[in-house]
Design a protein that fits this description.
This protein has 231 residues and is α+β, with helices and mostly antiparallel strands. It is built from 6 helices and 13 strands. The two termini are 25 Å apart.
Length: 231
């Protein structure tokens, strides 16, 4: 696993304006605002976590909880990120993640967020995400991947489970989201985004000039929550 560095294939910027204005084109399909965050983000988790696998924290709740000075620093960072992204036109959500739901066994291969996948939208949009605490999102360079439905044995398994024409089969792959998922090639250089970086990922949409960014949620560290902002 490779941490994101200045020498990596992913460009970094130093402010929010550059994050949202840097062109995404071709294989240059992700840009990250590189920064160090300060404060006690775990204190926010302790104050807000529920029994659910995913707890959504609304800004109103975040503003209302009593925090130490370090917790207040963390809160201010998150609220500022909320404001920047909301003013840009995005709809950020702050989640405490114990674990995501996993796919049921009837799938030929998993299509949950732990699988390398791309995001798709019918309208022009980008994905923004930032991990403040816990394991961080992983990115797979497009050139070091293969679409899972193009792997012969997987494609044959999918065909064995389908009855219909070739055209209907291609539609089935899209409707079941199988076409969104990718496998890392041998020796692929998987990139782990550092804590605190806000990253903008290209999405598969009709007007995109960039390849959609392949990424996945990491397996959570044992006994540890994640604190993730995403939109």
């Amino acid at each position: 696993m490779h941490q994101l560095t200045a020498q990596s294939a992913i460009p970094t910027v130093t402010n929010f304006n550059d994050l949202v204005t840097t062109p995404l084109k071709g294989s240059a399909n992700v840009v990250c605002w590189e920064r160090e965050i300060i404060g006690d983000f775990y204190e926010i988790i302790q104050q807000c976590v529920s029994a659910e696998n995913i707890t959504v924290i609304e800004p109103e709740l975040l503003r209302s909880i009593n925090l130490s000075a370090a917790g207040q620093q963390a809160r201010n960072t998150i609220l500022n990120d909320f404001e920047l992204l909301s003013e840009y036109g995005a709809a950020p959500t702050l989640n405490i993640i114990k674990q995501y739901d996993r796919d049921a066994d009837e799938h030929i291969f998993p299509t949950d967020v732990y699988s390398f996948h791309i995001d798709r939208s019918p309208i022009p949009v980008d994905t923004f995400l930032c991990t403040y605490y816990g394991a961080t999102t992983e990115i797979l360079p497009n050139a070091q991947s293969i679409q899972k439905i193009l792997i012969p044995e997987i494609r044959q398994q999918l065909k064995n489970n389908f009855v219909g024409s070739d055209a209907a089969f291609e539609t089935y792959l899209t409707e079941q989201f199988y076409d969104l998922h990718f496998e890392a090639l041998p020796d692929a250089q998987i990139i782990q985004i550092p804590l605190g970086h806000i990253c903008r990922l290209a999405v598969d949409h009709p007007n995109s000039q960039a390849l959609p960014c392949i990424h996945r949620a990491p397996l959570e560290n044992p006994g540890e929550y994640r604190l993730l902002l995403i939109c």
